[in-house]
């Protein structure tokens, strides 16, 4: 069985930040060719390009700031200075920058899988629960590094944590990006906050920071709690298609949970694939991050530990189930079929011949009708359900009319089953 254990991203270390000339940037982007645009916003455009760095060529994301953008010269230099000092496997690396005349350009390592927001909210293959957990762990580690690493003096408060600022590399490792709004944390104690004009993104903004102007590391924790809800629910932080009082994901999710509808807020692509224990622990962690009192929120180090424990729980649950089933020969298979007696366009007669060929001498492979499975499980009664989790949708114990005890795995399409002998 494939391990779900979290694996850090590769040890590849991008080159140190350097200054590029405008002509180098123009060459890398084919003179800012519109066909190379991979992102755009109030700041300007992001181009995919190939940048030459010494004797090597690197794929890069090249962010060209418009002169009238929200990200001005102060934030530009803040990001250059910040990322020049920060090196971590879960932070997007700044390869270099260009400042000539009115041109302000940042050159980052290119992240092929795009943003977490795109993966959650655009029409793409849904992320599995395991992958979502690992992405959350990686992003949390990046934030924990900013908040606590002893090599960073003073510490950093990101101030704009959101799913669109979490990028994914080839291996789905999460990396925190966009440090234009980041603030240097206090070096003096006991002061633990920075007084600042309120900046951030609606939907992720810490209510306490919004009301008081006191920015703390716990403001990042709050925003990360919103990201956790996005990951669980598959909904955007702000959805204006809902009633106005439920535009914000946090309010909608919290109200649903209070009404006892925790299972109903789960992304439809994940329903039946998260064990009740994993779901409870994950939602509880998100709730702690979103506590109205900043001091009651966990640190990012505690968030990392919480997420890792949930991943370990998931792996333990799946491993236990796998060990129970290992060594058992497959006794029966039931495949989904339609009225035309075909499976995905394949006739059942052809499928029967195939199963006979692959079954081998010591395996008996038969096709049951649904009524037999319904009888064996007493119509999929809750009393016969023995597992519901991340590896399978649901598993039931049952007994055939001939007395054989079996376990039956029901998959997400509700028409596919596997039966194993006890």
UniProtKB/TrEMBL annotation:
<keyword id="KW-0723">Serine/threonine-protein kinase</keyword>
<dbReference type="GO" id="GO:0016020">
    <property type="term" value="C:membrane"/>
</dbReference>
<feature type="domain" description="Protein kinase">
    <location>
        <begin position="32"/>
        <end position="311"/>
    </location>
</feature>
<feature type="binding site">
    <location>
        <position position="63"/>
    </location>
    <ligand>
        <name>ATP</name>
    </ligand>
</feature>
<dbReference type="InterPro" id="IPR011009">
    <property type="entry name" value="Kinase-like_dom_sf"/>
</dbReference>
<keyword id="KW-0547">Nucleotide-binding</keyword>
<keyword id="KW-1133">Transmembrane helix</keyword>
<dbReference type="GO" id="GO:0005524">
    <property type="term" value="F:ATP binding"/>
</dbReference>
<keyword id="KW-0812">Transmembrane</keyword>
<keyword id="KW-0472">Membrane</keyword>
<protein>
    <submittedName>
        <fullName>Putative serine/threonine/dual specificity protein kinase, catalytic domain-containing protein</fullName>
    </submittedName>
</protein>
<dbReference type="InterPro" id="IPR000719">
    <property type="entry name" value="Prot_kinase_dom"/>
</dbReference>
<dbReference type="GO" id="GO:0004674">
    <property type="term" value="F:protein serine/threonine kinase activity"/>
</dbReference>
<dbReference type="Pfam" id="PF07714">
    <property type="entry name" value="PK_Tyr_Ser-Thr"/>
</dbReference>
<dbReference type="InterPro" id="IPR008271">
    <property type="entry name" value="Ser/Thr_kinase_AS"/>
</dbReference>
<comment type="similarity">
    <text>Belongs to the protein kinase superfamily.</text>
</comment>
<dbReference type="GO" id="GO:0004714">
    <property type="term" value="F:transmembrane receptor protein tyrosine kinase activity"/>
</dbReference>
<dbReference type="InterPro" id="IPR017441">
    <property type="entry name" value="Protein_kinase_ATP_BS"/>
</dbReference>
<keyword id="KW-0675">Receptor</keyword>
<keyword id="KW-0067">ATP-binding</keyword>
<dbReference type="InterPro" id="IPR001245">
    <property type="entry name" value="Ser-Thr/Tyr_kinase_cat_dom"/>
</dbReference>
<keyword id="KW-0808">Transferase</keyword>
<keyword id="KW-0418">Kinase</keyword>
<dbReference type="InterPro" id="IPR045272">
    <property type="entry name" value="ANXUR1/2-like"/>
</dbReference>
<keyword id="KW-0597">Phosphoprotein</keyword>
């Amino acid at each position: 069985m494939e391990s779900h254990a979290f694996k850090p991203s590769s040890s590849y270390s991008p080159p140190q930040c350097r200054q590029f000339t405008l002509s180098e940037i123009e060459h890398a982007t084919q003179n800012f060719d519109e066909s190379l645009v991979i992102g755009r916003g109030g700041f300007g455009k992001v181009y995919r390009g190939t940048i030459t760095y010494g004797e090597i060529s690197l794929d890069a994301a090249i962010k060209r700031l418009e002169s009238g953008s929200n990200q001005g010269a102060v934030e530009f230099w803040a990001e250059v200075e910040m990322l020049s000092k920060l090196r971590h496997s879960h932070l997007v690396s700044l390869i270099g920058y260009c400042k000539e005349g009115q041109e302000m350009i940042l050159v980052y390592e290119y992240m092929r899988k795009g943003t977490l927001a795109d993966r959650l909210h655009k029409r793409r293959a849904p992320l599995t629960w395991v992958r979502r957990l690992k992405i959350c762990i990686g992003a949390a580690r990046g934030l924990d590094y900013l908040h606590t690493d002893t090599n960073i003096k003073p510490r950093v408060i990101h101030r704009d944590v959101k799913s669109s600022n979490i990028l994914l590399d080839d291996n789905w490792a999460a990396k925190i990006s966009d440090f234009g709004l980041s603030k240097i944390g206090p070096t003096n104690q006991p002061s633990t906050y920075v007084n600042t004009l309120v900046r951030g993104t609606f939907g992720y903004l810490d209510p306490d920071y919004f009301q008081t102007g006191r920015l703390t590391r716990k403001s990042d924790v709050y925003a990360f709690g919103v990201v956790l809800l996005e990951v669980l629910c598959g909904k955007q932080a702000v959805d204006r298609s809902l009633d106005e009082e439920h535009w914000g994901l946090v309010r909608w999710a919290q109200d649903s949970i209070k009404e006892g509808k925790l299972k109903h807020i789960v992304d439809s692509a994940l329903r039946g694939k998260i064990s009740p224990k994993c779901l409870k622990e994950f939602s509880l962690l998100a709730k702690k991050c979103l506590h109205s009192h900043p001091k009651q929120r966990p640190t990012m180090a505690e968030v990392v530990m919480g997420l890792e424990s949930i991943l370990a729980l998931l792996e333990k649950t799946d491993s236990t189930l796998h060990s129970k089933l290992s060594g058992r020969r497959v006794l029966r298979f039931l495949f989904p079929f339609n009225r035309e007696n075909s499976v995905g366009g394949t006739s059942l007669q052809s499928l029967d011949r195939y199963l006979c060929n692959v079954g081998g001498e010591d395996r008996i492979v038969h096709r049951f009708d649904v009524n037999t499975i319904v009888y064996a499980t007493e119509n999929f009664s809750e009393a016969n359900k023995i597992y519901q989790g991340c590896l399978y949708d649901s598993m039931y114990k049952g007994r055939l009319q001939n007395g054989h005890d079996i376990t039956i795995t029901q998959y997400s399409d509700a028409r596919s089953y596997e039966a194993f002998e006890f």
